[in-house]
C-alpha cells in the first residue's frame, strides 16, 4: 500500500476541511509533561490561589536573574521539594516546550526556565487523564493478566493481552476523545490561567489585568492552531503588529473571550465528527489510525492513513502489527513524533530522527528507536525489548521488559513496574550518527544505569490511585548481567546512500560490558580455530554443521530472535 500524502491533507466529500484553522491542545504537554510528584499537584479548589502565591514567591528570583527565569534551586525552595525533583521538573518542562530554549537546554535545565512557562507547567499538573472505557469481559481479562499487586485490578484494563483479545481500540480513549478532554480542561481553567499570567495595571474590574503579546505567545505551551499559524498572528488584537513597535497590552478578558470562542468551535467540530462515527466499524477517532489501516499496509514501508483530512498530521503511527517486521526510515516519518501502539510479537525499526516517541500496549516485541531529541514514553508493555537513543525516557507500568539505552538524562521510572532490566545501548545503523546530531543527543553522555524512581501511584490517572491506597516507591530496574549482554544487528538498508555511515555503536560501552564482549569474541575465535584444526572427514563435518544449525535454531526460537533473522534474510 503506497503512503498517502498527509500534508496538506486531501479533501474528501465525507469530511470537508473546516473553513478556519482549529485550535488544538498541544498533546506533548499533556502526554509527556505530567510528573507524578505529589507536591507539584495542588487541589483544584485552591489551585489558582496556590499558584498565585507561588508566583509571588518566585518573582524575586526571576527578577534577580534579570531575564525572568527560575532555576531548580528556587523552585525547590518555593515548593519544599528535593532539589533533584525540582531539577527533574525543570528538565521535563524543557522537553515539552513548543520551541527550543537554548538557555534552558544548555545545562539540562540548569539555566532556569521562564517563570510564565513554569507556572503553566505546574498548572497542568492538575490535569486528570481520560478514563478508559470499561472492558465488557473483565473476568476473562483477569484470567490472562494475573494480578500481582494492589493496582493490577485497575491497570489490567490497559494490558496488551486485553487489546489483543478485544481486537479493537474501543476500550481505550481515541485521539479525538483525548483532545476533546484536554480542550474541555482548558476551557474550564482558562480564566484562572490568564489571571495567573496577566500583569496588573491601574483600572477597575476586567481592565485591571492585561497580557502583553510576549506573554500571550506563552499560551502556545498549551494550544496551537492546526494550520501552524502563531497565536499572535491568529488573534485579531495582535495580528499584523508592527515589529518595530511593541504591541499594546490587551485585557485578559478580551483574550479569554477570544480563546473560549476558538475552543468552542473546535469542540463543536470534534463532537460532530465523533457523533458521525458512532455505530460504524471505524470507532477510532478521526485522528486515529485504525487496526485495519495498519494491518493492510505493507509492513516494511508503511504509514497508515488518516481518516479525517481536516487536520494536518504531526505524528506517525505504527499500530496493530502482529508477527511481522516494520521499518520506518526518515522519509517515512511524518511530523515530529512517532507512536508505536498495540504491536505484538514483532520487530519495529524506527530509523529516523524525531522529537517524541511513544510505545504503548505492546507485548513480545522489539522496538528500535534511532534518535529521539526530546523524550520517549514506554507504557503498559509486557516482555518488550526497547533499544533507544534519546535525551530522556520515561517508563511506566511495564513488566518483564529490557531497555538498551543511550540516554543523556536519568531514565524516569514510575508506576506499577515488575522485573525491568536496563543495559547500555547495543546497536547502530548507517545514519545513526547523523540522526543523533540532528536531534541533539550526545553519545558521549549515557546515564542508562542511573534510574530516577518515583511512586507507584500516578495522580494524573484516576485508575491508578484507588481511595485508601498509599503511594510507595516504584520498583526500580536491574542492570543486565554483562555476560548476558548482546549486540543487536540492524540490516543495512540503503547503506550505499550514506556518505559517512556509522559503523559502530556511538555510545561507548562501560568497561565491564566491553570486557565481556571481548571475552566472548576471543572464545568465538578460539572455537573457530579449534574446528579448523580438527581432522574431520566430510561426514563428520556434516554432522557437526547439522548439530550447530539445530542448536542455533533452537536458540533463535527460544529467544524470539527468529523474527529478526527473517528480517535480515529478507534484505
Automatic annotation (TrEMBL):
Residues 304-441 form the C-CAP/cofactor C-like domain. SUPFAM superfamilies: C-terminal domain of adenylylcyclase associated protein. Coiled coil: none annotated. It is found in: Cytoplasm, Cytoskeleton, Microtubule organizing center, Centrosome; Cytoplasm, Cytoskeleton, Spindle pole. Residues 1-21 are annotated as: Disordered. Residues 7-21 have a biased composition (Pro residues). GO terms for cellular component: spindle pole. It comes from the Eukaryota. Keywords: Cytoplasm, Cytoskeleton. PANTHER family: TBCC DOMAIN-CONTAINING PROTEIN 1 (PTHR16052). Belongs to the TBCC family. This is TBCC domain-containing protein 1. It comes from Triticum aestivum.
